[in-house]
Amino acid sequence: MTLTYARYLKIDELLRIQQARSDPPEHDEMLFIVIHQVYELWFKQLLHEFEKVKRDFSDNDLFGAIHTFKRTRTIMKTLVGQLDILETMTPMSFGSFRERLETASGFQSYQYRELEYLLGYKRADLIKYHDEGTVGHDVLLRRLNEPSVIDRFYDFLGQRGVEIPDELRARDVTLPAEPNKQVQRGILDLYRTNSEITILFESMTDFDEGLQEWRYRHIKTVERTIGHKKGTGGSPGVEFLKTSLFKPVFPDLWAIRHEF
Question: Radius of gyration of the chain from Cα atoms?
Fold first, then answer.
C-alpha cells in the first residue's frame, strides 16, 4: 500500500477524536476540544525536546542545547498565541457545555505536570490527583524519582569549571530545585568570560520567561471565563494556578540579574 500524507499522519484517526458531548452540539465545544488536544500535542513535543536537552547537558553539547532551547521558546510563544483563540469563547458559550465535562479538568493534564517535573518543579502531592494504575500516575511517579533538566544543568556547569556543591550533587531529586549562591557565582563567571555560554543562559531565560508568560495568560483566561469558581470537577481553579505564577524553573539565572 502506497504511503500517503493521510496514512503517514493518521489523519482519519486524528479527525475522529473531536467528539462533542453536548447534544445537540454547542458550537464552541469543538473549539474547546481542538485547542486542548493541540495543547497536549505541544506538551508531548516539549517533553521530547527537554529529553534532548538533558542529553545535551550530559554530553557537554553547548550548541545542541542552545538550538533546542530556541525551539522550546518558540513553542511557548505558540502556546500563548492559542489562548488568544480560546478567549474568543465567551463565558456564556463555555457555560453552555461546561456541565457536560463532568469531572474532566485541565488540572488533570498529566503531560503538563510531567513537563514541570522534567524541568525540576516537582510537587509530589499533585500525583494524588491521578489514580494508581493509570498512565498519568505511573508517568509522574517515574518523573518524580529521576533527575530533572536542572540536575543535568548542574552536570553541564561542572564540565565548564563551575564548582557544584556536594549537597546539590547528592540532592533529593524528588524536591523542587532551589537557587544556590555558589552556582550563581559560577554562572556569573561564565557570563563574564564565555560569550558562547552566555547565549545558552539567555536562551534558557527566554524559555523560562515564556513559561511564566503562559502561566499568567492561562490564569487570566480561566479567570475571564469562570471567575473564581472552582474548576471543572471541583479542581482548585484560579487560586491554585496563582501559586506557580512567576515561579522560575531556572532560579539561579534570575537571581543574578542585579549583578551585571
Answer: 20
Burial of 86: CB neighbours in 10 Å, binned 0-12, 13-18, 19+: buried
Q: What is the pLDDT of residues 165-221, one digit of tens each?
A: 999 999 999 999 899 999 999 999 999 999 999 999 999 999 999 999 999 998 888
Say if residues 106 and 215 touch (Cβ distance below 8 Å). Answer: no
Q: Which residues 6+ apart lie within 8 Å of 54 measured at CB?
A: 147, 149, 152
CA–CA gap between residue 89 and residue 85 (Å, rounded): 8
Nearest CA-CA partner of 73 in 258, 250, 257, 252: 250
> In the chain, count of helices (H) and strands (E)?
13, 0
Q: Nearest 5°: CA angle at 245, between 88 and 111?
A: 75
- Residue ranges of the domains in the chain? 27-92+108-259
| pTM for the structure as a whole | 0.91
Q: Give the three-class secondary structure for 7.
A: helix
CA nearest 204: which of 62, 70, 49, 44? Answer: 70
27-92+108-259 has CATH 3.40.50.720 classification = no
What is the full DSSP assignment across 9-48?
HTHHHHHH-----SSSPPHHHHHHHHHHHHHHHHHHHHHH
Write down the pLDDT at residue 18.
Answer: 95
